[in-house]
# Entry
Amino acid sequence: MAGNTEFHYIGIDVGTGSARACVIDHQGNIVGLASQSIKTWQPHPEFYEQSTKDIWNSICAAVKQAIQEAGLHPSSIRGLAFDATCSLAVFSKETNNPVSVGGPKGSSDQNVILWLDHRAVAETKTINATGHPVLQYVGGGMSVEMEMPKILWLKNHMDPSKFQDCEFYDLADALTHLATGEKTRSYCSVICKQGYLAAGTDYGEEGWQLEFLNQIGLEDLAIDDYAQIGGINGKNGRYLSAGERVGPLSEKAALELGLSPGIAVGSGVIDAYADWIGTVGAKVDLGLDGPIDHREHLSHRLALVAGTSTCHLAMTNDELFVAGVWGPYRDVLFSGAYVAEGGQSATGELIRHVVESHPAYSKTATEAKKAGISLYDFLNDYLREQAKESECAHVSELAKHFFFYGDLWGNRSPIADAQMRGAVIGLRSDTSIENLALHYYGALEFIALQTRQIVDTMNERGYQISTIFMSGSQTLNDLLIHLIASCCKMPVIVPEYVHAAVCHGAAMLAAMAASQGSGEESKDLWSIMTQMSKPGRRLDPTADADEQRLLQAKYEVFLDMCFKQPKASQRSVNRQGFVRNNGLSLNVCLRLSACSLYILKLPRLAPCRVVCRSPSTTPAEWNREGLNTPGFVYAISGFGSWGNGCLGHLHGLRPQKPFQRTAYFSHITPLHAMLSMLNDERAHWKIAARLEKKRLLIAVNCLAGLAIFFFGYDQGMMAGVNDSKSYVERMGLGYEKNGSITVTNTLLQGGIVSVYYLGTLVGCFMGGYVSDRFGRIMSLAFGAAWGILGAALQCTAMNPEWMIISRLINGIGTGILNATVPVYGSELADYESRGMFIAMEFTLNIVGVVVAYWLGFGLRYIDNGTSEFQWRFPIAFQIVMLLLLIIGCWFFPESPRWLCMTGRRDEAFYVLKRLRGSENEHAAMVEMREIEAVVRLEAESEEKTTYFHMLFGIDQGDLHIARRVQLVIWLQILQCWSGIAGVTMYAPTIFQIAGFDSEKTMWISGLNNIFYAFATLICVVTIDRIGRRWTLWWGAAGQAVAMFLAGGLARGGIDNPDNQGPWGVAATSMVYLYTFVFGATWLTVPWLYPAEIFPLKVRAKGNAWGVVGWSLGNGSLTLVLPYIFAAIGENTLHVFGAVNLISIPIVWAFYPESSQRTLEEIDMLFAAESPFTWAAEAKFKTLIAEHPDIGRAHQRHSVFETEKGLHYIDTEHKETVAHN
# Structure
């Protein structure tokens, strides 16, 4: 093979979301690299499925692209090999066609159960409950990601005859099967993930263990000598170590791949093991006489695959069991050698979580962006600069009093305890970038110290690890590598192809397969690795003796925090609130080790432990004060105690508990207690703790509807008030004569009505600020308080000045609520029903108008309409609904998007889970990640968010907020000028033309309002089905027709005074038609659209601009409409008809569709430079491709094609680490 320098080899890596093809030459140089996405289906929240057809198509495209990139002829390719995630692929024994893994209705193409699929949780428990000795070779118990639980699930859910026709493959073996037609299995897949025992193990003979299969309920697999799962080796099956030749590439596969038939195909491996192959062969000087290339030296090398999670792979020639470490696995890489697999859960996710949950994250991200470097590089530079300014010899000295334990997702190795949690010593109230950097460093140090713990544990059991070979995305962090090397006291080697180590390793397997049967001497895997591995980069441990001593001391504290945690967790608290082992009350101020500790009892929160330690307390003693109390959260003094410098300590940290949400109080007061109780979204007395999914959404809709009901009631109330004789006389508007009212001061009457709109204009700006700054619930209470004050002043008004001020205050309250309620409703509703959610609220708006009208109508008959009760009571009645609102709102959940924006991620996820359903946690998590992605993007932007900057587009970048402001303002103005106010004002004239007297006119107007309310239900049904644009289009067309006909028919009645009745009745029917169409279309959309289209950080302020448009439209119309009607009469209706016609092309050209899109996706619709909708849609498609983590990955039956939409679901699985 050495003489054929023109030969090349292809390694194919199939990850969770993509297939990568890597072409290398005979020296191991990568000459071509290409990637193609893979589809994943999620037919159920726990199900993740793929298709071997789709995977194979992606592989074929990637191979052709890589060869083209390398500029090679396909004939130069001599070998091919695969690695893949440990997913289960199913084929028919009889036809070799894919078999559906999704039940009777599943697509047969979807024949792969992905590694992160959780459908087989119950089956996993059943298998592990047997305690069979086979399980000791898979870490003491099978994981749900392994393949035997998935096969058992299929047996339990599949027709027996269909199950008997199935053949089961690990995905890597399935790909070699598709490439060659052979049914060969790799030792790597069956031993590591399926319970197959290799020859030479201490328990049993080689092969499948019938006793084990009988105990777990899969005895059927023994039929036909285990043919369904690979058969018996040497009889009806064949099992190979990594890279051994499976067979030649078939003609069919060669044609599809664009390669020559007959080239060698090697036995594949699980992706993490391909990473080992591509990593540990690096030729480096390890302090010996020269580079060591002997296979015996492999037992000294640990492969550290570090991405979202971290995987540790070590090899030995002896069967060595280590608690918390999977394996030992024999023959999976080299014949006769064992591989052990340790792991750290979600290390990359831990770093991200620590940084992004800190209060200083947004500021830090902005500074990093200004510097033009990554966030982690910025923090590393910041720490070094801080060390320099503090005259510290090394960065580690900055954190000598800070101790961080980060098992937030449980411990994978070496404790193997899923109940382990995080702990911090040294908490401060500091929210600066400096404090964020300290927490960030603590997370890095924890990862390094735990790596040493795993290495030490393995070495104590007989391993001889002396060098770490590291790959994955975390190798970009030089500070982390330095800490790992220094804590473990051994060099860290980073391979040259650090980001392609996996497919590089697979290509080496291809080269090994090509050497077998080539007419030349066959190469073993180590020889191939020696020949093709690149030198890599070496990073040595610190040479600073002080840093070495400090890290050793930190390691001792780390071990104390680790091993004392399970013991402390066993302590309990009785129902009276006293710790059983020391009798200290949890409801009093404790003084432990001269440190102030204040504890606040809060119900139904995640358990955590709190300890305090003075500087004199030894590491071995500090944990003895621990308290583990389910149902309580603890506020810790982070300010020191009487100058002694004592810091707060918190144990039991979980990933759902961001650090900035830790409550820091120097004293607990009733105010603190009340605010904490009101702010906790998971309190048991809140509605979200008792209701979920549709029932919770209905409850939220009732709250929002109550506010909108008040809005409608307030609009309709003044019509009845203005008809009150007592009110007209009290306010000096006119007089009553012969039973009728004559208004002499129309300007004052109009001013009292119109000043309300000035109040809403002021209120909407106030509401937008309060809502974005303090939350949607706080803004609801704030608006209700203003409304109560305004209503109380109105109903006691004694003169017009008093009434004007009262109306202004009342308008402010309405404006605050109008700026908040649509945003609140849209942020809690699911994107598929968001329009219906808001439309239902505006049904209640018109119901409020109806109630106000008929209440005023009925009160006309009290004391013949002369009593002040007629107008004071309807005004005072507002207070009832506002009191219900201001009291009830605290029982309702805050917007999860606002909670996430303000750093309260744990509460945001809790609310989101309750809204989407507790059983749908995975989908809620993906939606949460989508929200977080937008929050991160917005946090990194430098755009100004004042109203002034929003209106004029100053420093707005690509967000184009000014364009959105203009759209919502003009949409509301178009709504006002579409004619609803004109119809309301001119309707009595039309009814008079029809011959109706004043009494009948009032009845007809009241019935029209009821008709109006029922019409809004049409919008509830249609708005999400046909979209916002079509709703506006057909509404404008229908309203234009009604307006033109109403105006023409009214003119006909005027021109025919002797026969006015039929003309008037026909015109009246057009009034009803207009009201119906308006209620079904334009009433809702102008209020919904502003709540959808603005970025999260200014959503409430953006909605406030919509209220501005409504205030300007209504205010201007109220002032000028009497003069317009006086000038042109019924022709005013024709003007409104023309406005409706003009609205159609305006909506078509400038208003993009928001229906069936998440709020995060809608944000991308306005990134285009052009304001036209076609440009917006084109840019949207481009951005969705660039930012798939903001796509609708959570949608049922959806397809998402990148790993970002997947690896967040379960960060504990190692398969993701190679692809980050």
Residues 895-940 form one domain. The longest strand covers residues 18-25. The chain has five domains: 8-280, 348-494+540-566, 685-893, 895-940, 958-1153.
